[in-house]
Amino acid sequence: MAAKKPRKALGRGLGALLQDSETSNKSSNIEREFPDVESVSNINEIPINQIEVNPFQPRSHFDKEALDELADSIKTQGIIQPITVRKLSDDSYQLISGERRTQASKIAGLKTIPAYIRLANDQQMLEMALIENIQRENLNAMEIAMSYQRLLTECDLKQEQLGERVGKNRTTVNNYLRLLKLPPDIQLALKEKKLSMGHARAIINIEDVDKQLDVFKKTINEDLSVRKVEALVRDIVTGKDADKEKAPKKEIPYEAKNVQNKLSSHFGTKVGLKIDDKNKGEIKIPFLSKDDLNRILDLLDVDL
C-alpha cells in the first residue's frame, strides 16, 4: 500500500523553510515556499568564525541572561535545532536564522555549529528573517505590525501572500497593519505592553486623533477593560458622547441657588455649591493665588 503523503502544514510559515532536508518531502516544502532558494546540503558542521551576522535581522536586542542560560543548555545538551545559513563562498556563510543559538554557542565555547546551508538572494534573506522573527512568542503587537509592513513593502508581497506566509487570515494581518496608523504615544504603550491589542483595536475605530488620545489616557489612568473601552468608543463613534455633553445640567433648587449667590458675594469669588436629593453636598471656594487664599481664610476666621 502506498505511503500516505504528509499533510501540508497550515499557512506558509518558517517551519516549512527550515526543516531538515534529509527526505525529498521535507525538501519539497522549501521548494514550494521559496522556489529560488536552493538546498546546498543536509546538516553540516561549519566553523562559527566563518558565519557572518544577518544584515536583515529584525531583532536588535538579545537578553544577556537568556543567552547565558541558552549557552549553559548548549554545553549540556548541544545544539538541538540546527541554524540555517546561506553560502557566500567556500569558507564564508551568512545567517538566515538562529542568531540566538549562534551567539549562545560562542559563549559556550563551541568552535563549530550544525547548520542547514541554503542559497538565497537578499530579498529571500529578508523575507525568511522577518518570518522567523514573527514566529517568536514574545513579540509585542507593534513588532508584529512592523514586520508585516516590511514584508509587504520590502519583499513586495500582497496581503493574501503575507497571510499565507505567516499562517494568518487577511483580517488578522489587516488588524495589525492598522496599528501603524495610531499616534506614537499609543504605539509606544503597545510596545511596552501597557496597552493590549484588544484595547488598540477598539481605539483605532475613532478617526479623530485627539479623541483617540483621550480614550487612551482614560484607559491607562482608570485601567479600563477592553469591553469598557469598546463601549466608550462606540459612544464616540455614534455621537452619544456628544449628546451627553450637550445634556443640560441639573438645576439646583432656588434656596440652594440663593445660598450660593450669598457665599459668592461674601467671598468675592464664584463659589460652587452641590446639593443632592438627601441635602448632602459640597462647597467649593476657588482662589487665584496665595494672597487670595489668605484673604479667604481671614473671611473664614481661620488662624493658621
Keyphrases for this structure?
3 domains; two-stranded antiparallel sheet; 15 helices; 51% helix; disordered N terminus; ParB_dimer_C; ParB/Sulfiredoxin_sf; chromosome partition; Chromosome_partition/occlusion
Give a structural overview.
The protein is α/β, with parallel strands linked by helices and 304 residues long. The protein folds into three domains: 14-137, Conserved hypothetical protein from pyrococcus furiosus pfu- 392566-001, ParB domain (Alpha-Beta Complex); 183-247, no CATH class; 254-300, no CATH class. It is 51% helix and 13% strand. The protein has 15 helices and seven strands. The chain has helices at 14-17, 24-33, 64-77, 99-108, 122-134, 141-153, 159-166, 170-178, 184-191, 197-203, 209-222, 226-238, 240-246, 254-267, 290-300; strands at residues 38-47, 51-52, 83-89, 92-97, 112-119, 272-275, 281-284. A five-stranded mixed sheet has the order 1-5-3-4-2. Strands 6-7 form a two-stranded antiparallel sheet. β3 and β4 (92-97) form a beta hairpin. The protein is elongated and about 95 Å long. InterPro entries: Chromosome_partition/occlusion, HTH_ParB/Spo0J, ParB/RepB/Spo0J, ParB/Sulfiredoxin_sf, ParB_dimer_C, ParB_N. This is Chromosome partitioning protein ParB. Residues 1-32 are annotated as: Disordered. Residues 1-10 have a biased composition (Basic residues). Keywords: Chromosome partition, DNA-binding.
